């Protein structure tokens, strides 16, 4: 079923969510750390040894292509002393020894999609860019356990999917086409086919890993069950992965797409009155005139039947996710965002059904809601991955964080109220798109966590459905960093405290959406954190990947409580 497209005048409101605007290059900010002698000596040694694979120009900034390969502006502003781009795993072994000899800090970049500074870039150190480790090889059934595809960490997911799709095959990977393979897989990895097969980390047959001592090892459940377990969600704390063997599955057409919803003004006004939120007074400014104009369009859209109730949308999401909904082909991303051009809230949902021929009607209630704009269609999976990329463009400042709760309809309603209150504090921020993403960790996903010896995420088989609530804020000006970050933190804290007061909280923190201030490995549970620390000490006794690679989420003794 395909929704009808609304009139062109209404697309202004729906399409404002995409924030489609041009990008301009800004001169990066070079910090004092760039002059550190040890790292410049390391860069000189790397240049002498590995030559063309090293970019080391101490009087110039990094190449523009390298800067723009990062998703968030905060990462683009970080300036390494040099950039090392290996062509094979053995190159990294040589480079790692040089880096250790000079005690220089480093970062490893796969796709560069981290949302905060230094996630995969390093200020004044060595950034190892894995983009040339981009092999993709369909290897068939090599061990009698099913088909696998060998994938290098320098790929982005679209490269992998396009290679496999011509054979009607897929792997369990990212939903945004431009996300890098490496960080996604090491952080867990939610997929559109996770209810069928588990998360991406649950579908890695083996890893080729460079350990702290420079050795290149093949890690699988039989060879190194402890390290294999740790790599399935343990992030960058154990080594540099140079190849993933991914379990490979048949995949045909799918049905889905983005749907954007506007809400009844009377319902919004009633909620805001109950929450003591005062309307923004009109003034003769361009922004105020635009908001007034779009308010007229909003009311006209309601008369044409395009407005829905917030309660109805939450009910539809709840019914798709609830425990007795057992269709493993159904996945959904759902949420809300403030639209500054309208001075109002818009809802969005992206349902996807991964086997069109087996559709059970699970999305019928959602499809009964009339969107102001919809892209629902039947297409190849790559078509949906590209669409998410288009609606999540790079080159803006980002503020992300996440928490996990248990599924509860009233709690979702109350979290929406908290959002309505807290978003008032950042309405002034230029071109702000403060989206709240809500998506399930279904019982089917969790049951698959036990595959191949289990993962280290700390979610038990009997749990679910759980809900990830995440802030994904995009904005433009560095001067707004503190205000935007503070709003996201306060929203999540209030929501978490409310969930905890009702016994509806869960400790898990999804690494790939987390803010650097969050204790990701504490969210795995104390037993799993202790086990991960023990494995880290075994394979990296000198702490190379915890001390010299400081970026992203670290396992540290100091975190133990």
What would your notes on this structure say?
The protein is of the alpha+beta class. Helix content is 33%, strand content 20%. The chain is built from 19 helices and 21 strands. The chain has helices at residues 8-15, 37-50, 64-68, 73-76, 89-101, 157-165, 181-186, 194-197, 225-231, 265-274, 286-303, 310-321, 364-367, 381-390, 409-422, 443-448, 481-501, 526-539, 544-548, and strands spanning 54-55, 82-84, 106-109, 126-129, 136-140, 148-151, 169-171, 204-210, 216-220, 240-250, 254-256, 259-263, 307-308, 330-339, 344-353, 373-374, 377-379, 397-406, 433-441, 466-475, 505-506. Strands 11, 12, 13, 14, 15, 16, 17, 18, 19, 20 and 21 form an eleven-stranded mixed beta sheet that branches. Helix 2 packs antiparallel against helix 5 (89-101), helix 6 packs antiparallel against helix 14 (381-390) and helix 15 runs antiparallel to helix 17 (481-501). Residues 1-35 have low confidence and may be disordered.
Q: How would you sum up this structure in a few lines?
A:
The protein is α+β, with helices and mostly antiparallel strands and 561 residues long.
Sum up the overall morphology in one term.
globular
Percent range for helical residues?
25-40%
The assigned structural class equals: alpha+beta
Q: What's the overall average pLDDT, rounded?
A: 91
For the secondary structure, the number of strands is 21
Percentage beta strand: 15-25%
SS element count, helices: 19
Largest sheet: 11 strands, mixed
Which radius of gyration do the C-alpha atoms yield? 24 Å
Which stretches are poorly predicted, pLDDT < 50 over at least 5 residues? 1-35
